[in-house]
């Protein structure tokens, strides 16, 4: 049995113990893990310093080093995050549906853990604690494969998480880490269908594409967002400008930020200058075709590629359309099916947009930035699914569960 | 654009029309399709006769020819099946959850069609009509890839389905058929992620394995059932014998038939002779290890392989265990996670079994044969899922839907 298989088997065994645990014990273990992390923040910082030193030697970009680097504050936030998850409602055991059949069979559809969850992510040590907490709370064992640049930090964090959960006499193997960080092992890990039930890639578009292409385990695709805002002919212009400003500039690097504007021709002469004024005051570069540039000369030329891009930066594409049909067609063609908004005072147009746009979250008169597990009131978020199966949109603890049917009879046989 | 891509694109376009349809129009179209099938049963029979003649020439097995062959009665049943689906509740547009946020955002989680569904199946023309009806009712376009031996029958059935739906001015392309029945094209079909959202293999274990291995499109794995019945120490013996008889012999070739027995050592001396007597009276061969054969000499030797087999025939394996823990361990090791039952008068043991057995359907004192969409009251069934993601157990129309979040605001921005 090779290295990965033995990890898989250990996780599977641990998941069987975990699936039976009562909520109170799980919550005690989570709080103990958080406490152990806080108490040992010095040791975690030392491990992290090694990672950061190596990363600097290798010439890692400043922004990536910032995501890799831990501070006492960040470690405390990590621990507080675990405590917050412990306070959430336990999703396991919830009776989702009760069916009583004419023959007397009593059928209960009950939420159960998925089993073993694999997480593949970049050099962000906070994901280690965060992913563990959500998987553990929902009764799943987790195998973490973080970026090789964070290996010392991850080892240390996992070490203290384990110290915490051991206090509740739980098996270490509910959290496992792939310490062999070669690409070859990563690919093998994505194909361990016998031991891993579900794979979450957490990171940039490149990481996600690589997991989708190489995995044979079911994957939940998350994150990429070319989000559109459509300004309809009857839009309240102030509202439109405020929402576009918020969705574009409140945070650039997030998947629910707006990347593309679609403007009804009937309002373009008024709307585009107003939007341009606001966005250029924040150094956002607008890119549009000739009909857009005729309205405001400061707008840059847009290529076909611009309509499809997730900039994750201070850029936005603009497209003028003749009517709602064109808007819907354009958005369904170029979007990544994440989040799109219509700004309109016309209820019928809003309803058509909400129904016909094929995206996880569709907004009427609100910012796309609300696509988020916390903003939806889920109390947590493992990611935002851009696929249609199992889970779509912001995913809370429920997305980490499956269900089973428990059927009680008194001797029924089928005739 | 090659043949398959053009099919995919046509289906995608049709699915956009279909997603917007009201329930009444869909139901009229379904009834018109059923009518057209009934009216043209002669032409369908003629097409089927060609398939049957070719199959006989090729020396197809009698049992497979029986599944391929249509009669006027079978065609009428096919049409009646479509009418029954038209009478089911439309799953699309159902509001699954409403969330109101403190900032005034109103969030509705609404059921939507998946989009384009691919069905890969064997030479069973009835699946053509059945799969179409379920996909259409749930707002999905469908691309059918049936066994090459049924190609003339399938063409004819699709032809008359289209004749029916054209009466409601709906696009033909809501139902498409892959007429190039080569294996190469089948494999390409399983990898059309851009156009097909979900793939259902319907058929035997070989077909399902091939689809799971070759597909890059998300697949719902269905069907294989090595179902266990565990006779606990306190079982009501008459009930146990009746349930085992029903689960084993009522129909042999189905995935929810019992294939494996597990018996508590404390009741084995009484239970095994009683079960043997009943099953051997129906020519079922029992296979067990030495401790089983010591109790009844007529029982055959079981190899390790027997515990894992889905016989789909008059055979059953028997295993004696020392306690409930061993029973659960044995079943979780060998089962295909489909359906398992415990026969016991002990409520605590029943609850442990229902909680700890990792299968889609777990029964207390009832036959595994009830794992079925109709028996669960779903009114339809596209298959029985043995995986944990998206759908588990019997799947009705709901399994053919996804959801989206529709969010209504009045200018909310994120702070």
How does this model look, in words?
The structure is a homodimer of 415-residue chains. Chain A is of the alpha/beta class and 415 residues long. Chain A has two domains: 3-221 and 393-408, Aldehyde Dehydrogenase, Chain A, domain 1; 227-370, 3-Layer(aba) Sandwich (Aldehyde Dehydrogenase, Chain A, domain 2), CATH 3.40.309. Chain A has 15 helices and 16 strands. The first copy, chain A, has helices at residues 3-20, 23-39, 41-57, 62-68, 72-86, 125-137, 151-166, 183-189, 205-214, 237-249, 265-280, 290-293, 304-308, 324-334, 347-356; strands at residues 95-100, 106-113, 116-121, 141-145, 175-177, 198-202, 227-231, 258-264, 285-288, 300-301, 315-321, 339-343, 361-366, 383-385, 393-395, 401-412. In chain A, the strands form four sheets. A seven-stranded parallel sheet of chain A has the order 10-9-11-8-7-12-13, with helices on both faces. In chain A, helix 5 runs parallel beside helix 6. The two termini of chain A are 47 Å apart. At the A-B interface, helix 1, helix 10, helix 15, strand 13 and strand 16 of A face helix 1, helix 10, helix 15, strand 13 and strand 16 of B. Strand 13 (361-366) of chain A pairs parallel with strand 16 (401-412) of chain B.
Write the layout of secondary structure elements.
Two copies of one chain form a homodimer.
Chain A: H1 3-20, H2 23-39, H3 41-57, H4 62-68, H5 72-86, E1 95-100, E2 106-113, E3 116-121, H6 125-137, E4 141-145, H7 151-166, E5 175-177, H8 183-189, E6 198-202, H9 205-214, E7 227-231, H10 237-249, E8 258-264, H11 265-280, E9 285-288, H12 290-293, E10 300-301, H13 304-308, E11 315-321, H14 324-334, E12 339-343, H15 347-356, E13 361-366, E14 383-385, E15 393-395, E16 401-412
Parallel strand pairs in A: 3-4, 3-6, 4-5, 7-8, 7-12, 8-11, 9-10, 9-11, 12-13
Antiparallel strand pairs in A: 1-2, 2-16, 14-15
């Amino acid at each position: 049995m090779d290295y990965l298989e033995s990890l898989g088997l250990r996780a599977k065994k641990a998941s069987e113990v975990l699936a039976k645990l009562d909520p109170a014990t799980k919550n005690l273990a989570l709080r103990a893990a958080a406490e152990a992390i806080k108490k040992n923040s010095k040791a975690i910082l030392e491990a992290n310093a090694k990672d950061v030193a190596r990363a600097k030697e290798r010439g890692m970009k400043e922004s990536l080093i910032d995501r890799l680097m831990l501070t006492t504050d960040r470690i405390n936030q990590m621990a507080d995050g675990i405590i917050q998850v412990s306070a959430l409602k336990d999703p396991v055991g919830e009776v989702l549906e009760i069916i009583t059949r004419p023959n007397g069979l009593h059928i209960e559809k009950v939420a159960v853990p998925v089993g073993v969850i694999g997480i593949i992510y970049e050099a962000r040590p906070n994901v280690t604690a965060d992913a563990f907490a959500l998987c553990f709370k929902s009764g799943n064992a987790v195998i973490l494969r973080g970026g090789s640049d964070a290996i010392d930090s991850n080892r240390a964090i996992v070490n203290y998480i384990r110290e915490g959960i051991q206090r509740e006499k739980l098996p270490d193997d509910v959290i496992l880490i792939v310490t062999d960080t070669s690409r070859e092992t990563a690919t093998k890990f994505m194909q361990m269908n016998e031991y891993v039930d579900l794979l979450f890639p957490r990171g940039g578009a490149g990481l996600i594409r690589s997991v989708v292409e190489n995995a044979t385990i079911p994957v939940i695709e998350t994150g990429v967002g070319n989000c559109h805002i459509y300004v309809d002919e009857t839009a309240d212009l102030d509202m439109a400008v405020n929402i576009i400003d918020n969705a574009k500039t409140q945070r650039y690097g997030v998947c629910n930020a707006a990347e593309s504007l679609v403007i009804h021709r009937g309002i373009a002469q008024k709307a585009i200058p107003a939007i341009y004024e606001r966005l250029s005051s924040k150094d956002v570069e607008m890119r549009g075709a000739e009909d857009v540039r005729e309205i405001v000369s400061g707008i840059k030329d847009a290529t076909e590629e611009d309509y499809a891009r997730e900039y994750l930066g201070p850029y936005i594409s603009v497209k003028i359309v003749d009517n709602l049909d064109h808007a819907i067609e354009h958005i369904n063609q170029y979007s990544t099916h994440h989040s799109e908004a219509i700004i309109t005072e016309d209820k019928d147009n809003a309803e058509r947009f909400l129904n016909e746009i094929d995206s996880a979250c569709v907004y009427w008169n609100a910012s796309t930035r609300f696509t988020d597990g916390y903003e939806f009131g889920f109390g947590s978020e493992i990611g935002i699914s851009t696929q249609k199966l199992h889970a779509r949109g912001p995913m809370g603890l429920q997305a980490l569960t499956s269900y089973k049917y428990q059927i009680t009879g008194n001797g029924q046989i089928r005739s």
